[in-house]
Design brief:
The chain is of the alpha+beta class and about 80 residues long. The protein is about 60% helix and about 20% strand. It has one domain.
Length: about 80
Amino acid sequence: MCMYVRREELCVYVRGEKVCVYVRAWAIAAKAWVIMDKTWVNVAKAWVIVAKAWAIVAKAWAIVLRHGPLCSGMGHCG
């Protein structure tokens, strides 16, 4: 298998057949992949933030359930 690059094309010989791909198409595909990667990173970050928010809510509920509505302002629990 051999490969050469012409002005706008990337050509590869596979079993004696020439297969050419436009370089621009590859560049566009690569950019799309980079954007997708970034999007996935952002989605992952968003999930981390959501998980942190849920952890805070869970802690708040634990505090409320431990000390919360059953207690009067004086700290006496009913």
